[in-house]
Structures are given as C-alpha cells and as structure tokens.
Design goal:
Chain C: It holds the Pfam family ABC_tran. Chain C: InterPro entries: AAA+_ATPase, ABC_AA/LPS_Transport, ABC_transporter-like_ATP-bd, BCA_ABC_TP_C, P-loop_NTPase. The complex is a heterotrimer of chains A (about 400), B (about 350) and C (about 250). Chain A has about 400 residues and is mainly alpha-helical. Chain A contains 19 helices and four strands. Classes of the chains: A mainly alpha (about 400), B mainly alpha (about 350), C alpha/beta (about 250).
Chain lengths: ~400, ~350, ~250
C-alpha cells in the first residue's frame, strides 16, 4: 500500500520545510556550515535540483544540458545589473524569462527523441552554448574572463534616480538591502521555499500525475488520448526556468558570470544531486544539493596539515599513510570523492538518501513490532536478550 | 587547393581518433548493450600509459655536471643513459612507439576488470543508470590520474626522425606549400591499420563471427551452447585496448591532461549517434566525416561567413541527424530508434 | 449503421504484403471478431485503426471521418480505445491514478495545463475513477502500485482505463492471451457485462472459445485478405476457414 499524501500532510511538510530552511543559520552552525556564503549555495543549488527533478524525476527524461540554462540565467542577471539596475528583481525576472525561452527552444527540438538520444541532444546543445560562449559570443559573455560589472555600466534605472555618478561598483540589492551575507541568504531561501512549494503543487496536480504516467509507460500514454509532447515540454521549460533562476541567484550573490558554469560536468553535478537525494521525491533533491555542497566545502578546505592534525594521535608511520590516502579524497581531490559517491549511490542505493531513510524507518518499525510481538507470543524465541 | 588538401588531412587525423574511440564505444554498445560514459577515460588512460612509460624510462639519477667547472653543478641523467649510453638514449627517444606494446596488456587488464567488476552488474539496469554509473567511474579515473600526474598537460615527443614535417607538396608536384607533420601522417596510417585489424578480426576469425552473431541475435547464439558472456567480456577488453592505443598515439599531437578523455567522450558519443548506434561501419565513417567537417569549419574562409561554426559544427550535424534520421547514417532499423 | 469502415486497405513491409485489399464494415453495437492464423495481418490491421501504422493505399473511416495520418492520441480523443496483447498500464502508479489519467484525458482533452489544483481534491475525476474500479472489482486495491498486480488484474485495470472514457469503439487485441482458463472466463464475463453498455467492440483472438462466447460477427483474415465473413455459427463449418487454419486451431 502506498499511502497517498493528503493536503494536510503537505501543509505540514511545507511548514517543516520552511522552518528548517529559515532556521538553517542556527542549526547548520554546529556542523561548521553556519556562514552565509555556503548557506546561499545550499539554497541556490537546492533550487536548481528541485527544478531538475521536475523534469528527470517526474518524466524520466535525463537531461545532460541543464547547466546551459544556469549559465543563461547568470549572464542575463549580470546584464540586467549592468544595463538596468542593481536591484535584483528585474534580474530575476529577466533571467527566468530568457532561460525559459532558451529551454523552450532546446526542449522543442530535443523532446522529439527520448531515452539516450534525448540525453545526447541536450548534451549537444549545452556544449554548443558553452563553446559559443567562449568564442563568437564574447561580446555578450566576455569569453574566458567572464562577464563582470564595471563602474561605467549604464544602469539606466538606477541612474535615473541617482543624483551623482557612482564612484565604486554598487552592490546588488533588493530595494536598498544589500544582497550579500545573511540578507542574500534569506532572499535565496525565500525563493527556494516558493520554488519548493510550486514543485509540490505541480507534483500533486493532474499535470504531475500525467508526467509520472509518461515516465511509467509512454506507449499506453499515446493510446490514452493525451499528447505527451506538450506535457514534457512544459516540464522541460519549467525546470529550465528553475535552472535559470538558480543562475540568477548565483549572480545576485556574486555578480559575475562565466562560461564554465555551462560545461557538461556542471550538468552532471545537478544530476548527481538529484540522484543522491532521491529521484522523484520532493525533499531528495534539496537534501542532495545540501549534502554535496556541504561536503564540497568541508572536503575541499582540508589539506595535508589539517589531516595531520586529525591523525596526530596515531604513530607517525600510520599517520603518514592515512594522510596520504585520505589526502587523495580531500582538497583538490574532492571530485574523486564525488565520483566515488556517484557510483556508490547508483550501485547500492538507486533511490538515494530518501530511500535509505525509508528503508531504515521500515526496518526499525519492523524490528520494534517484532520485539513487541516476541515478548507476548513466544517468550523470547526471537529475542535472545530476554531469553537469558 | 593546398589548404583544401591540408584540411582534409587534418580532418582525417582528428577523424581517426574519433573513429577509433567511437569504434570501441559501438563495440561495447552493440555487444553488451551498455552506454559507457567511462569510454573517454579509457582514451585518457591509454594516453597516460604513454606518459608513464616515458616517466619510467627517464627515471634519473643526479650526477656531477663535468661541463661546468666554476662551481659544483649537478644534472639529472636517466638511468638508462647512465647504464647503456647511446642505446639508452635511443630507447627513451622511442618511448611513444614502445608505449604501444606497454599499453596493450595494461588496457586489456583495465577493460576486463572494468567489465567484470562493474559493467556486468548493469546489463539489466536502465540506460540512465548505466550512463550515471559510468559517468561516476569516469570522474574517479580522471581524478586518480590528476592526483598522480598533476593537472597540467604533459607533452610527449615522437622519435626524432618523425618530428619534422613531410613536404607532401613536393612529392605530389604541387609546390612547396603543402607540408604536414610526420607524426600526424603516422597517426593516420596507424588509425587505418587498427580499424582494419578490428574489422578483419570480427569478419575473419571464428571468435569475431560468434561475436557478430551475438550482436545480431544474442539468444540464438546462446541456444547453440556458446558462452557469449565470456566472449563479450573479451570484446570489452579489446575495445579498451583499441581506445587506449588511440590515446597512446595521440599524445605527441595533443599533450594529454586528465580531462582529455571527457573532451573526446562527448564528441565520440556524437559520432556514434551520427553513425548509428550499434553500427561499426557507421562509427568509422561518421568519425572521419565529422573530423573532416570540423576541420573545414575551422578554415578562415568558412569562419568569416559563419562565425563560430567551427565550435558547433559537430553538434549541429548530430542534432540534424538525430531529428531527420534517428537511427543514424548506417544504423539498423529498429535499434534504439526512439 | 457502420461505425468503422475499411476500404481496399493495402500495407506492405519491405515488399512483403501484410494487408491485401482488406474491406471491413463494423456495425455499431456489434462485437466484431477478427480471427485468422498467425501472420494473417490481424495486428497490422488493428494498428491501422489506431494510427500506429498508415496504410499504403485505401481508407479507414471512423464515423465518417478518415483516420489516416491522425495521431494515436487524437484517434483516442475521437472515441477509440485500445487494449493490448500484454496489458499496458502505468506500473509505477497506483490503480486509482492509473484510471484517473484516461479520465483526465476524456474530460480535459489532449493537453490542458492543470498544474495548481490537487488531483485528489478533484472529486469529479476521483468519483468516476473509483466507480469504474468498483465495476471491474479492483476497488480494494486502489492504492496499490499497478506493477504488482497479477496478469489477470492488469487486464481488468487496462479495461477499466478504456471503459472510463466511454469509448465509442473498443479494440481488444487478444484480451485473454497468456491467461489461465479461470482468468479467461473471468475476462469473458467482464467483457459480456460491459457489452451491456452497448460499446462497439473489435476483438482479435486466437481462442475460439472466447470468440464464440462474445462475437456477434466474425471476419476471417488469411494472408492479408478477408476470406470469409458472417455470423459465428456460419463460420464454424466454413471450409475456407478450416483450410486457412489448416487445423492450426480447434474450430
């Protein structure tokens, strides 16, 4: 029996989620993650993964090109800062619009195929965008240097109200509140909560059910009177807009944009986040994004000195060996850990962390039940401790 | 005219690498039905076989530099040179060709271990899961190489008599403008030979025939009492060797770094798709075709008309092929035609 | 009045003629069985009705409208539902969700964006879906994942998914293939009960027991051509039919 979540369950889920995100600065601190830069990343990549999951988790279409939308979002946001205003609202709006349009274009073509062909088509489009961003599109993307703000930028809207010319590059802001540090985090967190709520509504809606049905059986779908293509395209565009929004927020918290954000390994990262947390689950992608960004931060900050400190209590030869081995996985070697994690998850826990929790929960519950039953029925046969 | 020919040669060269990787990729897909995203890593591992051998051969000892008399100076001299003199130097010079022999057993072992240890367990899983697990493996392999050899490209040199350029123009009576690096010609010949060898192996040996039959209809072959699994494992090993050799020989053309595999992987997948999933001939043809197209697209005359076309031509062709003829140029009807 | 009329349909694959000048009239309200030996072209013909295949020449008209070149989902929207040889259901969804999908398709058309309302609070869809599950006797299993059902139950579910759309024409491709005798009889009973709704049905079948318990008319297809047509009783003794089967089926 699968228990269907009711509207009340979902309300509870939303309440807990909102509370957990908003209080993150408090409870993440003991883990060494209580500073705004990292918290912003949690929220931004959480949003990226939640959006990706709308496509991959619901429809089963594995896109290997979502980083392109992230990049488009970033570039648009920086251009909005340069041309219009340092206010983040227009940046977010335009960023989502351009990435949505871009997703519409790429999705329309790519969704003519499914399975591995779809993956390769999206990959091809993302690589084209990446290559172009580095070469002919340099006037828009500023090539390898990346797009940056300058004192002399137009900022039409800002300058309409400003009395004198700027002497320094102004900070991104939300009607005067600077978007760095905790205000920046809370802005991202608010959008994550909204984004999560939208994803929740979509999942529970007729659209969400239809998308799941597409993943389950395309053939039946065709003979059920539903035209699958506009549905998958809708999912593609929505998830592309999430990616664009995440790209905007990256630019909001740190106003520059580079082409490396569009590389296909970056697309691979969001796939990993989603899988690690649990494909098709609501909380999974957020969890996966959090775990990866957390460990990336912790692991890549470790170096040999830190490791020597950790293993200092051991005799020197053992200490050195351990440092040499673990040293492979931390610091610059963080990607090695990431790759290994990727494999372990796909091999042993295809349902991700959420499935792990579910299994653990049902195992514990069965255990508790068994213990309770064992006491009353067959006096300790199944319970060695009480038999003695 | 000269630049035209030059571009064709350039294209054939690049195409040779694409074709070899795509050939391995297709062999694996055709036999095992596995979408192997770790295939680029095999190319990279091959390249680093060459690097390791070079490092091994040039292991050095510090000796006093006699030519400097003002102060105590030391220089590094490879053991080989120290022990064998001129012969040692020659061995070092031939490190890249020697790597071919060196890499064959290594790549074979890597391929067999990969198939038995990991890929085997993913035959029955979805393509998405195959992509993901091999993608993870690719990252792991690439990071291990990075940890061992650093992040910078490591240049390799071909034997001295192959370092210069061949004056093709003079031979063909077309003036002196058509010169082409010797090693690239060697690579082209090598790619051609290796491809022919693979096809000969598949077409003229009993083993190859069984494998091809298995690609067509696995069940029937199994009903005949043939252990197709073990043969497919060996095919995986062979594909690893072919791809690894492509990597070995490419090192003097492009100094390998740890992400050279990823760069080639994406392109080779595109090649396989254009050629037709599971079609060996298609993979080879598409490899050369795309190589040539790419080098034409990077001609200045073309770039001035269509700026940026050199960056996207391959992907563009793939998109068009996938939309117009999803089974690829030479793909069989019904094979992964979704 | 005929609901489906097939005129001079030809279809060949790589030179092999699968259908040769097929003519067929399906009367409204009838249960029309198409029988024939393996490779007679039954499935090919069926695929021409649902838009999976397009005949090389000839016409297929449903209620006076041509079906040629129309996509499967549009044909379904026009009122043609289909049951597959192996039940095609949404294995990862619950039974209730399985039935809700076609209900939505019927109510909202081929594409409609309802991304904000909760599907479980859509009482119209839920009521209809639950009602049909009750009809086919699967209501207790409504919250089970459909993939875990037995084959017989999967067939019931698939039928429910078709019936919930109130189709004008129901195509049944070997509805009892691979079923035990008990399951077969259950399915026949179910089909007879839904027969009372007056839905026109086309049944492709090997099992003559099924054919003679259900059909009001039988067409015999052999080598891509209709070789005989008539009431089931007349077909039993027809020498052409027996020859076509060559004893391949127990007539």
């Amino acid at each position: 029996m699968t228990k269907q979540p009711t509207a009340r369950n979902d309300l509870l889920l939303m309440a807990v989620f909102t509370l957990a995100i908003l209080t993150m600065p408090i409870w993440a601190a003991p883990f060494g993650a209580g500073y705004p830069d990292l918290l912003q990343k949690f929220a931004i990549y959480g949003l990226f993964a939640v959006g990706f999951n709308i496509l991959f988790g619901l429809t089963g279409y594995l896109s290997f090109g979502h980083a392109a939308f992230l990049g488009v979002g970033s570039y648009t946001a920086v251009w909005s800062f340069k041309l219009l205003s340092m206010n983040v609202i227009p940046a977010v709006i335009f960023g989502m619009m351009t990435s949505g349009l871009f997703a519409l274009l790429i999705g329309y073509v790519s969704l003519r195929r499914s399975g591995i062909y779809f993956s390769i088509l999206t990959l091809a489009f993302a690589q084209m965008s990446y290559n172009l961003a580095y070469s002919v599109l340099t006037p828009i993307t500023n090539g390898e240097t990346g797009l940056q703000l300058a004192i002399g930028d137009a900022r039409i809207l800002d300058n309409m109200f400003a009395s004198e010319a700027a002497t320094a590059i102004p900070a991104t802001n939300l009607f005067g509140i600077e978007m760095s540090g905790y205000p920046g985090f809370y802005f991202c967190a608010a959008l994550l909560i909204i984004g999560f709520y939208i994803a929740l509504r979509i999942t529970r809606s007729p659209l969400g059910t239809i998308l799941k049905a597409i993943k389950s059986n395309q053939n039946r779908m065709n003979y059920t009177g539903l035209n699958t293509r506009p549905y998958t395209l809708t999912a593609f565009v929505i998830s592309g807009m999430y990616a664009g929004l995440a790209g905007c927020l990256l630019a909001v918290t740190d106003p520059l944009a580079g082409a490396e954000r569009m590389q296909w390994t970056a697309s691979g990262e969001v796939v990993l986040m989603t899988i690690l947390g649990g494909v098709g689950t609501l909380l999974g992608p957020v969890l996966g994004a959090g775990i990866i960004k957390y460990f990336e931060n912790i692991f890549s900050s470790y170096n040999d000195q830190v490791l020597h400190g950790i293993f200092a209590f051991l005799p020197d030869p053992i200490e050195n060996v351990l440092v040499a081995i673990t040293g492979l996985f931390v610091g610059d070697g963080w990607h090695l850990t990431l790759g290994a994690l990727f494999m372990v998850i796909v091999i042993f826990l295809p349902g991700g962390v959420i499935e792990g929790f579910t299994r653990l929960y049902s195992w514990v519950r069965a255990k508790v039940k068994q213990d309770a039953g064992g006491n009353s029925v067959n006096n300790g046969k199944s319970q060695p401790q009480s038999a003695e | 005219m000269d630049s035209f020919l030059l571009q064709i040669l350039n294209g054939l060269d690049k195409g040779g690498a694409y074709a070899l990787i795509a050939l391995g990729l297709t062999l694996i897909f055709g036999t095992l039905g596995v979408v192997n995203f770790a295939h680029g890593a095999l190319f990279m591992l091959g390249a680093f076989c060459a690097v390791s051998l070079q490092k091994l051969l040039t292991l050095s000892v510090k000796v006093k530099d006699e030519s400097i008399t003002f102060f105590e100076a030391y220089k590094e001299v490879p053991y080989l040179e120290q022990w064998f003199g001129q012969t040692g130097t020659t061995i070092i010079e031939y490190s890249v060709p020697l790597s071919i022999l060196f890499s064959i057993p290594i790549m074979l072992a890597i391929g067999l271990i990969m198939e038995r240890g990991l890929i085997k367990h993913f035959y029955k899983r979805t393509h998405a899961e195959q992509i993901l697990v091999t993608f993870g493996l690719a990252i792991v392999l690439q990071e291990i190489i990075k940890a061992c050899f650093g992040a910078n490209p490591i240049p390799q040199t071909p034997p001295e008599f192959l370092t210069g350029s061949a004056n093709l123009g003079a031979w063909l009576g077309m003036g002196d403008n058509l010169v082409y690096p010797w090693w690239r010609l060697v690579y082209l010949a090598f790619a051609g030979m290796l491809i022919s060898a693979v096809f000969a192996f598949l077409n003229y040996t009993t083993f190859g025939m069984v494998v091809r039959a298995g690609m067509q209809d696995r069940e029937t072959v199994e009903l005949l009492g043939i252990n197709i699994d073990r043969r497919f494992t060996i095919v995986f090993g062979l594909a690893a060797v072919v791809t690894g050799l492509a990597g070995v020989m490419y090192t003097p053309i492009l100094p390998p770094d740890y992400h050279i595999g990823m760069d080639f992987l994406v392109l080779s997948f595109v090649v396989v798709v254009v050629g037709g999933m599971g079609s060996l001939r298609g993979a080879v043809a598409a490899g050369f075709l795309l190589g040539i197209l790419q080098s034409f697209a990077s001609m200045n005359a073309v770039k001035s008309i269509l700026p940026g076309i050199d960056q996207i031509i391959i992907y563009l062709v793939a998109v068009i092929i996938l939309l117009v003829r999803p089974r690829g140029l030479m793909g069989r009807k019904g094979v992964m035609e979704a | 009045m005929s609901i489906l009329s097939v005129n001079n349909v030809n279809k060949s694959f790589a030179g092999l003629k699968a259908l040769n000048q097929v003519n067929l009239e399906v009367e409204e309200g009838s249960v029309h069985a198409i029988i024939g030996p393996n490779g007679a072209g039954k499935s090919t013909l069926l695929n021409c009705f649902v838009g999976r295949l397009i005949p090389d020449t000839g016409t297929v008209n449903f209620l006076g409208q041509s079906l040629l070149g129309i996509t499967p989902h549009a044909i379904n929207q026009a009122g043609v539902a289909r049951v597959f040889q192996t039940p095609e259901i949404f294995g990862d969804l619950t039974l209730l969700e399985n039935v809700k999908i076609p209900t939505l398709a019927k109510r909202d058309g081929a594409f409609s964006l309802r991304a904000w309302s909760r599907i479980d609070q859509d009482s119209l869809v839920t009521d209809k879906a639950e009602h049909i599950l009750e009809d086919v006797g699967l209501i207790e299993k409504r919250d089970i994942l459909a993939g875990s059902l037995s084959r017989g139950d999967k067939r019931r579910l698939e039928l429910a998914m078709c019936l919930v759309q109130d189709p004008k024409l129901l195509l049944l491709d070997e509805p009892t293939a691979g079923m035990s005798r008990a399951d077969t009889n259950n399915t026949i009973d179910l089909l007879k009960r839904i027969g009372e709704r007056g839905i026109t049905k086309i049944v492709i079948e090997h099992d003559m027991h099924v054919v003679f318990s259900l059909a009001t008319k039988v067409s015999v297809l052999a080598q891509g051509t209709v070789i005989a047509e008539g009431a089931p009783e007349d077909m039993k003794g027809d020498p052409r039919v027996q020859e076509a089967y060559l004893g391949g089926a127990h007539l």
